[in-house]
Amino acid sequence: MPAIDLHSHSRYSDGSLSPTELVALAAKAGVKALALTDHDSVSGVPEAQEAALEHGITLIPGVEISASWGVHNVHIIGLQVDIHHPVLVAGLAQQAGARARRAIAIAERLEALGMTGVYEGVLALARDPESISRTHFGQWLYTNGHVTTVQQGFDRYLGPRKPASVPMPWASLEDTVSWILQAGGVPVLAHPGRYPLSRTKMREMMTAFQDAGGLAIEVATATEKPDMVQYLAQLAQQRGLAASQGSDYHGKPAPWIALGRFPKLPKGCEPVWQRWGWAADAFSSEQAAPQLV
Ligand code: AMP
Ligand code: MN
Ligand code: MN
Ligand code: MN
Q: Pocket of ligand 1, candidates 134, 158, 195, 248: which has the most ligand atoms within 8 Å of its Cβ, to mutate?
């Protein structure tokens, strides 16, 4: 099992566990190095770092930033970022404000469809107005009997062009990559196979990402089909991009995903952690990654 998991969520976005619980579970699962990559937030990192010290594993400070590329939404992960860097902090504050406003707008749309107590309900789930995600809306729709699965919540109400969809002015792909670089981090294009894009468009987006300074793509993720993993590995090598790997663990919202469980990085990939100076064989030998100083 891969011991390095570079994509996970806590309660500070749409995961169900606290950072402490997440790190404890990762350690129990045999993960030696975990990146906490909450959506548009680094607020859980200090708590996760403290827990990682206790459990003797390495915590990589990370974030998964929502970005716009034309009309498309893409996710840009920042790994090994300085969570206190003012440019990153200001960028994330802007995103959080937009997220809080969007939650009110989504709730209004659902109430216009006859539902009641929507905003109060999702806020109770998310705890903080700035971390309300569509996942919370999906959960609320499910627990209140408006849909029979969370997926149906996206298919009927929350997905693109559905009645409660609110298009978001997320920061541009270029800006998000730039924030991460300025914060000393490595920008990683998250789950490239998951966007509703043709392969041609996906490669075009990858070019825009690289032109902006992007350095790696997520090659191995839990939900990726084997031929997509191979294809992404090939693209990464052709383009001189490093390869990342991770579960995208959320806990309860996606119970079929486990920490540390995802396909192996195909041979020939340059593991992304080499970009911040870890030993080249950290992955293949599955040894503990060195503690960062
Ligand atoms: P947001 O950043 O608030 O727009 O929410 C995006 C999150 O919703 C993603 O990170 C997923 O966790 C979740 N999500 C997106 N699409 C779906 C879907 N079709 N079914 C279930 N969860 C989804
Ligand atoms: Mn999510
Ligand atoms: Mn994502
Ligand atoms: Mn994610």
A: 134
